[in-house]
Amino acid sequence: MVHWLGTELQTPPSRFDSDRPLANPCPVADDVTCIYCQSAGPFSDEHVIPAGLGGDDRDWLLKDVVCAVCNTKVFSPLETKVMRSSPLAIARLFYQSRSRDRGGKTVAPTIQAPVSYFDDTGSGLLLEQQLGSGGQSTVHPQVIVVPPNNITVAGSDVATMNALVDELRSLPDTLTICEKFRDGVEVRFDLTPLTWNGRSYVVGVAAGHNKAPADAIWLEPLELPATEIVGILTPRVFRRSKGPMVCRADSLADAAVLLSFVRANHEVLAVPADATATATETPGIHFRQTMDEDAYDRVLTKIGINLCAHLFGAEAVRAPAFDQAREFARTGSGRVRMLPVDQAKQLTDKFPRLPRHHLLVVLIEPASAGQVGHAAVLMQFYGGLMHAVVVAQGSSGLPSTSDLIYVVVDYEANSITRCTPDQFAEYAIRVGAEMPFPF
């Protein structure tokens, strides 16, 4: 048996209680101050479950509960970071077809990976690529050095390859190379001019700036992924689907040599009109992400607090029992209790995996003799590991509920439903969940 916070988690019964409706009450704020920073506003609507995770359900919005500063200046950047660079980001890319963007528009999910390669067995090269919705790989248009003394053009389609070639045929006599450096929270851009002397580009003197010009060529190092690869990584110039041109080389001097080589040989850069794509049944995709674990934990904590605010009212999460979790979610200071990975694996096996759904479970254990009480929220996204976050603890001031509360999120339909244990059992069967045994 798995024990969490001193409470044995009971498997939900399989009989549906038809007398209890699937209600989704949205409590009105009891006190008009922000639950996170206690300011008096102005306020903005806050999604209980982030819209990017399929929680764009109007019945599950906190109104006059979270101020606009906490919502847009604190939590929105955190959520964006987690949606694009975390385990959630990878699962979201493969399982969720659409996501809400700024302004309410729907877009395909994307991930942020500074290094992402397609291992092309045909050419023996690692090609710059991007993973799209459903894990579909798109090779960026690129001009690559092929040892010992050749260049080639690669890409997913002739049009984008020709567009890059046309740009490179008209390289100006003076280029600006941009390098990005981070020192803590401070970001600096070093801009270095390259000047054409009739035969090659000459590296000038770098100068620091706080902003990168739009027409600069970005310099990124040749970085091999920490995975088993077949292809080789050589200097190249490429364009991602969005953003500036990028030169991948180990140094400014190498970048100057590469761009000089491209300019001197621009006449031979050509993409045949009848060029066709080659398919690979089992493509090797290699990429590296930089995950901010602190941001990840803060977003999970915020989701737990928001969920309790929606279920029990805003005044409930203003109680001192929630102080530590609220402060951690807003500022990152302190910590909250999380379920260790080994226990998470055991806990995951106790619940059904819902296709196309996230599962959240609220567990309240009141204080008893010699034991402080706890409020924990269990969260399973995309059928993965069950996370558990303690959002409140203390001898008093905890919400009160006599049973587990289940919340299921249909992330394709942006629909959220609250269930009793009986209702959840029927819901899980209805959506074709993979059931643990016995359920």
| Cα Rg | 26 Å
Estimated structural class? alpha+beta
- Count of DSSP H/I helices: 9
What is the number of beta strands? Answer: 24
Beta-strand proportion: 25-35%
Measured distance between first and last alpha carbons: 14 Å
What is the compact description of this entry?
Helices cover 23% and strands 27% of the residues.
SSE blueprint:
Blueprint (H helix, E strand, L loop, with lengths): L2 E2 L2 E2 L37 E2 L13 E2 L5 H17 L2 H9 L3 E2 L5 E2 L7 E6 L4 E7 L5 E3 L2 E5 L3 E5 L3 H12 L4 E10 L2 E11 L4 E3 L3 E3 L7 E4 L15 E4 L5 E4 L3 H13 L19 E5 L4 H20 L1 H4 L5 H9 L9 H8 L8 E9 L7 E8 L5 E9 L10 E6 L4 E5 L1 H10 L9
Parallel strand pairs: 12-16, 16-18
Antiparallel strand pairs: 1-2, 3-4, 5-6, 7-8, 7-19, 8-9, 10-11, 10-17, 12-13, 13-14, 13-15, 17-18, 20-21, 20-23, 21-22, 23-24
Helix pairs in contact: 1-5, 5-7
